[in-house]
Each structure stands twice: as C-alpha cells, then as structure tokens.
Design goal:
The structure is a homodimer. Chain A is α/β, with parallel strands linked by helices. Chain A folds into two domains: 271 residues, Aspartate Aminotransferase, domain 2; 129 residues, Aspartate Aminotransferase, domain 1, CATH 3.90.1150. In chain A, the strands form four sheets. A seven-stranded mixed sheet of chain A has the order 4-12-11-10-9-5-6, with helices on both faces. A four-stranded antiparallel sheet of chain A has the order 13-14-17-16. The longest helix of chain A is centred in the last third of the chain and has 44 residues. The radius of gyration of chain A is 25 Å and the shape is globular. Chain A starts with 18 loop residues before the first helix and ends with a helix. The interface between A and B is large, with 112 and 111 residues. Strand 15 of chain A pairs parallel with strand 1 of chain B.
C-alpha cells in the first residue's frame, strides 16, 4: 500500500503512552534478522523449525461464493456454488498475493500479521474509513478483547481513570478493573453518549484527567444504541479540546441496518442494492473523522465471519501501532497461522467486492431478525410502561421500564428499582424466557471525582435482549413470554 | 478424565498470587450461562452469532500418517499414506470425541480449550509426567510466550524479583522488564543451573525473596544445556525449602536425543525403537517431581508441530489454572478455533501412540542434525580454545571460547571479552556464517541485591548456533566458515 503523502501527518501524542509502554524495548535478537536471507550467508542464528517438519501439507476450505444470492445462511450444494481455498506449504505462482503459504503462516514471524491479510485489511479500511492523516497503520491481533487489554497496558498506568458509557460490555470493565484502572461512566440516552455530558464531566474534572474514552459507538452492548454522525463529530471535538484519546470498539459496525418501520411493505424497498450504496449508508467512524491521530479503532472478524477465527485488528497512528507490536512480541506473538491462511485465503478469493457482498447479506439477515423481534415487542409488551428505541445496528435491543409504575414499588419493593428488575428477571425465567438485567452492565467508578453531585434518583430499569443467537420462531415465543412476565408483574391485563 | 483420588492434594500456595491476580473477578455475565440450554427456555441472553452464518462449512487437512516410516519430512504421495481430517460444522456421530465441530470451535466459549483437545493433552500428560497430587489442571493458550507473560501478571507485582538462568531467552526477559519485574541471574555451567548456586543466592538474599525460578530445563535457549534428573531433584528441594515457585518453560522437551558419540557405527544402535522406551528415556520434568503444587509447566506445539498453530498449554495446580482462565477471558479469550479443530482433529486421529511415533521420528531427525553439526565442530573448530559439550536436547549448541587466549586480548582489546566476541562475530559474518553472540542473552538484574559480591572476572565468551533451521549441507559450510573465522582471529594456522 502506498502512503497518501498529500495528507498531513498526525500530531505527536506519544506522551499519552503508559510507563509500561515506554519500558518496552525491541528484542536484541531482532537485530539478527537483518542478516537473514543475505546471499551466501549461512544463517545459524534463528531457532526456527524447518517447514518440512510441519505436519500439515494442505488445507482445503469450503465456503459459500459471492454474491451469496441465497443469503449467508445458505449451504452450497456443490463446488459450483462454493469458494474453495486450497492452501499449501508453498503457494503456486498464480496464487501469490492471494494465499498465505503454510510454510510461512505456520512459522514464527510477521508479528503484525501476514502481508496478504494486511493488504486486504488496509484496502478495506481505505474504502470504508477514508483517512485524514498519512501516518496510520494497522496490526492484526487475536480480536478486540486482546486489543482492548493491550491498549490499556499501552496507555494507562495503575490508578488512571478512563471514561466509558454508563452501561457497557462487562468484560471490558473487568479488564480495566484487573489493571487497577478506574472506569468512570458518561451519561447516555437511547442514542448513546450525550456529548454535553461528556464535555461537562471533563470540564469539571479535578485531578489527573481521564486518559481516554472507551466507546462501542454502533449497536452498543448492552443498550443497542448507535451514535449519529452529528454526535460523533461533537464527541471528537470534545476529545480534542480536552486532549483525551478515543477508543472505538466496533465489532458490530457492519451490522448496521435500515431504520425500523412498522410498515411491512416499505421494508423491502429500503434494502441495499449495491456496494457503493452500502458503503455510503455506513455511519462515519471516529477513525475517519480523526485529523490528529487520537482515535484507536478495534475491528474484529467475530461478528462478520466467526468469533473462533480469533482475528481482529487495531487501526491507529503508526507510532501507537508500533507499541502494540512490542506487546505482541512478548505475548500472543501473532494470531494463529491457520486463522490467517484461512481467513486471508477466503477473503482474497472473495475480493473486496465479494466481502462487501457478504456484509450486505449479513445486514439483510440482521435487519430481518431485528424487524421480527421489534414487531413482536410492540405486539406483546406493555409499551405504556416503556421507553424503547428499535436498534439500527448490532445484535442487541434494550427496553427501559419505569419501575415506579409497579403497583408495589413503594410497598413491597421499598422503592428499590433493582428489586423490581430482579422480580421481572425471575418471573420471565420461570415463564421460559431469558434476557440479561441492565444493572449487570453498569459502569461503577471505583472512585467518584469529588465534583460529582449525587446521582439522580433512578426510576427506570432495563433488560438486554438479543436476536442474534436464536432462530426467529423461538424469538417470537421468547418475547411473548417476557412480555407476559412484565404484564403479570405489573398487574396489567390484556 | 477422572481424578486420581488416591493422590494427596497440593499445598495451599495461593498467597503467591499477585495483586492483579487477586483483583480479577469472574464476569457477572457468566452467571447467565447457567441458564443456557435449559429445556423450554428461550435464551435471549448471549450475543452469539448463529453458526449457520460462519462462512466455513468444511475444512480438510492432509498430514502424514503414523508411524511415519519415511521420517517426518517425507511428503505423502497419496491418500493411503495420509491422515486426512475432514472437519465439519456438525461432527458426524462416528467422529464424536475425535473432531471439534466448527460450529463450536468457531463460536465463543470454552476459554480453557475445547474438551476434545484438553482430553488428549491430559492423557498425554498422564503418560509422560505422572502426577504426584490430584488437584491439577491444564489450560490451552496461544503458546508459551503468552503463557509466560500471563504467568508474570498472575504472580508478580511491580518491583518483584524473579530468578532466571544466567543466560536465557531474551524475549522472556523482555516480558519481565516491561512489567517492571527484576530478573536476577543464577549461575550455570554446561549442564544448566548449578543447584548450590541457586541455594546460595536464596539463602543470602536480603529483602523480599524472589517469587519464582524461570528455567528452560531441557535444550536450554541459548546454551543448549539440559538439567540432569539429579539436578532437577536438587533444584526442586531448594525451591521447597525457600518457598519459591518453579516455572519450567519446555518447548524443546521432546527434542531430547541420545548422547553424542563420535563412533558413527554406534549411533544407529542407540535409536529408540518403541513407545515405552521413548517415554522412559525422557528426563523427569519438574512437574512430575512436584508434590506440593509449586511447579507451573509451559508446553507448546511450536517445536513439535508448528509455531504458527499458536497452541500451547499450562499445567499446574487447579487453583492457579483458574487464575489463567480469568486472564484469558479478558485477553486472548482462547486460542484460534481453526487451530484447535485442526490440531485436535489431527492428534485425535493419530492417537496417543501415533503422536509418540511422530515425536520419536522428530527425535531421530534432530539427533542426526545434531550429530552432523557436532562432527563438523570437532573437525573445524580450534577445540584447544574452547569449552564445548554436545547438546542432548533442543535446537541449540553453544561453544565457549577463552578470550584471554587471543594474542591481542590485552593490547588491542584492553582485556574486554565483549570486544573479542564482537570481532569474531563480525569476521564470521564477513566469511559468510552467522551465529548469535552469547552476551545478547545475558540476564542483567536491574538491581543487584546488596549481598552479591562483584562478579568474577569474565574470561570466556560464547556463541549460540542452531541446527534447526538450516539444511545439513549448509550447516557444514557454516560451521567450517565460523571455525576459520575464530582461527584467523586468534592467529591459529592449520
């Protein structure tokens, strides 16, 4: 890939690095590799097993073939409907640049990822997130969970604070907790982080400022909310103003959908028909808004291909990416060679447009599942008690219930919103439907900065549901049961 | 696997855990999974993509088949000589317990590894390392580099000290350095750590004692040395006496060989002929000596199968392994599903004895390479200047040269051993042969405890070579050139 030198360079932001990141040195042994492959030099330097000893001579994978006319769940019946990747130890010349040979992918080396995979991902990045500065790079890792954990090591010292959405992915909070990093919540509504609240928190902050904002901007987990282009721009400006980094954790980015409409006939007309339309319909990433180099983007194959690929990547300014190389050298080293050969081989056979075809069909699947789910919610839930915004991205939906409307809110529950949440949770499970209580995702700062006033009195609870894992007919049953549980709990007849 | 309840339990050693390890909590979301799969419960809890959307319906791999009569480098010519693994989304009933279906391996879950792979590795462990206590466990990870990094997080706090071999794997030192952990060297000779030196260091230690000893006991990197059974027993006793943990990093364990003999005719008679003989010929692991639960063993497929599998595992007492589960949940999650399905599928088809066949042939290959290399060293090197013990395991050899015998040691080099090392290094590279200077592997404690006397005056330097990566004919050329470089440097004619 050629660098677009017409773009400006990013700002120097390396002073944001942690003490640990600054301690990391390149291994002295790397110096040896500059000799490796020199003509007429016998290299007795590196402890690499000979690839002839790797016991896998060939891997053949079978996948559906673009443009996936029968949808992504369709299982091809014969080779004519398949993309077949035959990956060998030594790539034949007509597949060079397409396949990652097993003699290389199963060997040590290429910490940042195999070149054929990196090339594909960089081209993809350029198509979807046009960059505003020239010195960016990406590193392939084992997924966003690893990426986030490494990122905390790279930028946060023990005792630092980071900002997160008020409700967020519990595992991301736990990673910070283990590193003794304080997580501080930023207020959100049904459309994600409220920019003015973010600005207020930072403006009124006393003491060492938070290092970064961690956000899941699209199809947020657990609330299902998505930030609009306008909010993203505002939030980016606030981050620049207060000099904090933005980490966008975007596993659900390509699960963007049409807005929900109750009008069933209007739905089919709204679907995406071509690649250009698809890319244009995407909400702007923080990465693409970034002129300074303060955004780190975490991407993953987990939701677009499969979680067990354990393939993800981080995109950011090159001097930051270099610090991730140093971490990976002494931890995961790189993601599995099998994963890279198979994912790389399949994606390179599909091509950029074939991959977009896959994503377009994925969007169609999730849109349909979302539609059926939301139809069902409107049919079976007591909407008069609820705040509910149908999701426009991701796997999750959340509905907020006004606990104060429970007839026994003050008597039996003594005004405790969480007790009402628990009562609904248990009744729904008893009725045979399971969703996760929103309180399980709450960001609780270990130390509240002194300027924070007492939190408003909580009135609402929420549940996180998902239409991802369950077939449609079961979802409908599950929603109906959950709706009945709420109604019975609140004494609503219908 | 059934626990052998006739064995005693390990000691409670959890007070060795780090502050970070103690901070780690199980994700509250794990509580949800106890509901998953309950009859007639619609589970809308987990954000798992449907396996029908995973774009890989089948993977077929081709490997050599046991007993590998033509050696492990032989490429099978047709299916009759191959182990062919066809791994599908849903395993047919006759392959249950053998194959890890893609619908599961490519999904989230099974942080500790897929059950079919764990079962194989536990059976293998029981065969090779008969355990002395009952509450042991293992966790599959992405290899020993990750394992070591996680282990440091689990047991060491910033500022702690660990003991390592005087010369050791640079990347392991760098992992500790980044975490602000001091590494302190224990003196070794051509047969590895000197037990009395370890005891002396610990007995004379002032201040907070080192947490653990990190050792590569077999085919040590970089010295090629291997600890005898006797030294292992002594070292284990010393660890118990001073209450430190032992971490055995054992990627080269199965690259054990016959002792080198100059008598070419005697060589073939010494090779291993059956499984029982092979297992019996293995040096005792620290794990198998451990009665208390203070040994953590790091195993890897990197040298026995291929580095790019990124499959390794840690074996230790169960309460320690549980802390590794917590780390993996918020970092790598688990090793690649492709890797687990392919490695598990191949190993389970080979069976325990087929895998031993593979290891026996691997041993034969490395023994032959070692023999040719050592023959060549004795032929071309100025042995009168050297200390050299032919390795009995691993990929590496080291030869120690008495720098004081350099005619210009005091004049040109001002008595600086490292300057002589550099002169040899550069001359050898110029002659077309490359090995790595031993000084690059030196463990230098960031803080020397006050009781340490000044180090003895250094007289010897060494180089690390390897016969792993290079074909035999090239090795011979490389050794000859390196020998000439030393001789010319020292003004020796022959």
């Amino acid at each position: 890939m050629t660098v677009d030198s017409s773009l400006p360079l990013s700002k120097d932001l390396d002073y944001h690095l942690s003490a640990e990141a600054l301690r990391r040195k390149e291994s002295p042994l790397k110096g040896a590799f500059k000799y490796y492959g020199k003509p007429d030099l016998v290299f007795l330097g590196g402890g690499l097993p000979q690839p002839t000893y790797f016991p896998w001579n060939k891997i053949t994978t079978e996948s559906p073939a673009p443009p996936f006319e029968n949808g992504i769940g369709y299982k091809p019946q014969d080779a004519s409907e398949m993309t077949i990747s035959e990956i060998t130890k030594h790539t034949p010349s007509h597949l060079e640049g397409i396949d990652i040979p097993l003699s290389r992918s199963l060997q040590y080396g290429n910490t940042n990822g195999q070149p054929e995979l990196i090339k594909f991902l960089k081209e993809h990045t350029t198509m979807v997130h046009p960059m505003q500065y020239q010195d960016w790079d990406l590193i392939v890792n084992t997924g966003n969970t690893q990426g986030w954990n490494d990122l905390l090591r790279n930028f946060c010292d023990k005792g630092d604070t980071i900002l997160t959405e008020e409700y967020t992915f519990a595992s991301s909070l736990e990673a910070a907790n283990a590193q003794a990093i304080t997580t501080f919540p930023v207020k959100m509504d049904s459309f994600g982080i409220i920019p003015s609240q973010l600005d207020a928190v930072l403006t009124n902050w006393i003491g060492k400022k938070p290092k970064l904002l961690y956000t899941i901007p699209t199809g947020q987990n657990p609330t299902g909310s998505s930030l609009s282009n306008e909010r993203r721009q505002e939030i980016y400006k606030i981050a620049c103003k207060h000099d904090i980094l933005i980490v966008e954790d975007e596993p659900y980015y390509f699960l963007q959908m049409e807005e929900y409409t109750k009008d069933v006939n209007a739905r089919s007309g709204k679907s995406i028909h071509n690649h250009e339309e698809f890319v244009k319909a995407m909400v702007k990433s923080f990465l693409s808004l970034d002129t300074e180099g303060r955004v780190l983007r975490l991407d993953s194959c987990s939701k677009t291909l499969a979680p067990g690929t354990r393939v993800g990547w981080i995109t950011a300014k090159a001097s930051f990416i270099e610090r991730f190389t140093r971490i990976q050298e002494v931890s995961s080293q790189n993601c599995s060679g099998f994963s890279q050969s198979i994912v790389g081989g399949t994606l390179n056979r599909w091509g950029q447009t074939g991959y977009l075809d896959w994503l377009i069909k994925l969007r169609a699947e999730y849109t349909h599942k979302r539609d059926v789910t939301v139809d069902s919610i409107y049919k079976h839930f007591p909407t008069e008690l609820m705040e509910f915004v149908p999701p426009v991205a991701g796997m999750f939906f959340a509905f907020h219930i006004d606990a104060t409307k429970h007839p026994k809110f003050e008597s039996e529950f003594k005004g405790d919103v969480l007790a009402v949440e628990k009562a609904i949770y248990e009744r729904a499970a008893e009725y045979g439907s399971y969703m996760i209580p929103g309180s399980w995702f709450k960001t609780v700062g270990q130390t509240e900065p002194p300027q924070q006033v007492a939190p408003e009195k909580q009135t609402h609870l929420f549940f996180r549901g998902t239409y991802a894992a369950t077939p449609l007919d079961e979802i409908i049953v599950g929603i109906e049961r959950f709706g009945k549980a709420i109604k019975d709990e609140f004494g609503i007849k219908n």
